Amino acid sequence: MRTIRLTAETRKDILDNLLKRSPNNYGQYEKVVADIIANVREKGDAAVFDYTSQFDKWNVSAENLRVTQAEIDEACAQIDKPFFTAMERSAANIEAFHKKQLRNSWIDTKPDGTLLGQRILPIAIAGVYVPGGKAAYPSSLLMNVIPARVAGVEKIIMTTPAGADGKVPAATLAAAKIAGVDEIYKVGGAQAIAAMAFGTESIPKVDKLVGPGNIFVALAKKACFGYVSIDSIAGPSEILVIADETANPRYVAADLLSQAEHDELASAILITTDESLADKVSAEIEGFLQELPRVDIMRKSLDNYGYILLADSLEDAVETANAIASEHLEILTKDPYQVMTKIKNAGAIFLGEYSSEPLGDYYAGPNHILPTNGTAKFFSPLNVDDFMKKTSLISYSREALEKAHKEIEIFAEREGLTAHANSIKVRFSKCEK
Length: 433
Known about the structure:
Layout lengths: L1 E4 L2 H12 L10 H14 L1 H12 L12 H10 L2 H19 L6 E4 L5 E8 L2 E5 L8 H14 L3 E5 L10 H10 L3 E3 L3 H10 L9 E3 L4 H10 L4 E2 L7 E6 L5 H12 L6 E6 L2 H15 L5 H11 E5 L3 H11 L3 E5 L3 H5 L7 E4 L5 H6 L25 E8 L2 H17 L3 H8 L8
Parallel strand pairs: 1-11, 4-5, 4-7, 5-6, 7-8, 9-10, 9-12, 10-11, 12-13
Antiparallel strand pairs: 2-3, 3-14
Helix pairs in contact: 2-3, 2-8, 2-9, 4-7, 5-6, 5-7, 6-7, 8-9, 10-11, 16-17
């Protein structure tokens, strides 16, 4: 993990390096994904079954595609009680947090007969993609499903790849039960995204697609956007820590590695005003790498996208943090709340030495589906609003329209849209009956 003096030039180089990880830079796979989507649209179940047999190596059919209640019950029985209880408590925290995001429809009326408002309703069907294999994370399942349920979505379906034995990991099914998934289908990859986006004989078409996945899943979501809504195109995980001389170097090192272990493209960055802290964190990282099992992944992540940046001031650190717009931002300074007020761009902010990033991943309640690759400048964490749609309400009386009609007609005529103007004008013409 390299240590660099923070300057305008080094900041630009780091930003350029981080952006190389964006899913937008993997165009070589787009043709493969486009072919899969086209095939699923044309052939439905037959294409889904073919790809599942080819990639997941098990004999899928219409009879065994959907997870049964017996399979869910069997999976729940396999989960040890402490883990099941932890998932239930996590789910309760996530639900409580997201209930505070609910908004109501509203109407505003005026004495002249004007009525304006907004009607807020949940979408009908949400589709959640849950990765399999080494990326089978029940915590992400809870984070994706519970906001949809809180929003009042009528049906939540889930797709996830099965192993060669046709079984889904027990923790995934247990989390699905806790979260309230209605239907689960054993299919993964771009073919699962296409099946939910367009529907097949067995898998219903959804209105919105959410959930992380590999590059093929990310590109499939991107290609299907417009036919359905999507949450985002997720990139590799990121953490940025702002720390001063008061920070505990062991905590900082542990928190940086908590994200570096995700995959080789994960990014872990420390920005500090204290050179002594930088040296101590570097030493602590080396010590942890001797103990933790995912050392190969962490070393590659740190070698490629790990940085310790020495800043001249906290103001420089904050400016850089806002430019990077990290998915996770920890503030470990003497007054983290004061520093937080200057942060404009971050997916989630963790304040103080006992607010480690995994607290947000698993338990606190705010969503851990966060914007990556600098998109925190314009995207938000997954939330209840992602599963709602808003409809505007407009009603004018004759009296109210009469006050405004000439200005509306001027607007329309200046834009050359005479039929627009006429639509207003006829209501006040002499021949009106």
